[in-house]
Amino acid sequence: MTRRRWRARLAARLPMSLSHVVPIAASETSEVVRRRREVVGVTSLVGAGLLGASLSTRPGSREFYLSTAAVAGIWSVGGLVSGPLHLGWIQTRDSSLRRPVVTPVATGVGAFAFFYAAALVARRIPPLDAAISRVLLFADEGDDRLVLLTTLANGVGEEIFFRGALYAALGDRNPALASTVVYTVATTTTRNPALVLAATVMGTLFGLQRRASGGVQAPTITHLTWSTLMLRFLPPLFRRPGLPGYAPRISATSGDA
Predict the structure, then answer these.
(1) The whole model's pTM is what?
(2) What's the sign of the alpha-carbon dihedral 23, 29, 34, 36?
(3) How many Å apart are CA 161 and CA 157, to the nearest integer?
(4) Contacts from 118-127 at CB under 8 Å and sequence distance 24+?
(5) How many of the other CB atoms lie within 10 Å of CB of 150?
(6) CA contacts within 13 A on the Cβ side of 154
(7) How far is residue 38's CA from residue 18's CA, in Å, rounded to a whole number?
(8) What is the tens place of the pLDDT at every residue in 42-81?
């Protein structure tokens, strides 16, 4: 009987599926809606342009860190200035509401496992292999701490803007899909098919999390978890001499090759 009660309690604490939308209504005045749409429009253009420019710099250079920090700042400031944002909730099977923490972390780990498996396949596809290798040069050169910091800052900024401000500005226009489309289009400025593909897949997941939870906390935590694991474990897969753009790994602390 004790075991049955324990199982019942555990089952009651499990979150609802991603298709379940938390029944929380949020209304905004026409003035907030107008201001949000204006800010979102300007931020989208400026942010996308800076994003493309940031990946045109030399990996590990001062310009790279400054430009990526500027991109994170644009997304964050634009999202926050546009109007109020909500953290959102996770509804469990016993109908209680909790701030999303554990579930988004687990989702981020699962997304990383999927991408790691996909990376093993991508290594055998020359165009994707080359595209991913070019992106990972930015993780392979320079200061590891700065790369991690700018990556996480951009993750937070992207969620504040795309799943926060942009999602809210879209209103009833299928925001989960529309925000993913805009997110993917913005990523095309990098001219890297691997990043565009990742933006499409993860943007869809983040959009569904935003729709289900009603806020930015769940997609933000998932994004940060996924990004950290990708940055830690993916580069060694593509760190192979002979690939276009390959450079030996340089330690950020010792300076040894």
Answers:
(1) 0.87
(2) negative
(3) 6
(4) 119/234, 119/237, 119/238, 120/237, 122/194, 123/237, 123/238, 127/193
(5) 22
(6) 24
(7) 31
(8) 999 999 999 999 989 998 899 999 999 999 999 999 999 9
Q: Distance between CA 199 and CA 89 in Å, rounded?
A: 24
Q: What is the DSSP letter of 189?
A: G
Integer Cα distance of 23 and 225 in angstroms:
26
The model's pLDDT over 119-177, given as tens digits with 9 standing for 90+, comes to 999 999 999 899 998 888 888 887 889 999 999 999 999 999 999 999 999 988 899 99
What is the three-class DSSP state of 64?
helix
Residue ranges with strand state E in 97-189: 97-98
* Whole-angstrom distance, CA of residue 153 vs CA of residue 69: 7
Residues in the chain: 257
Count CB neighbours of 107 within 10 A: 24
Max Cα-Cα span within the chain: 64
Structure tokens at 187: 């990523």
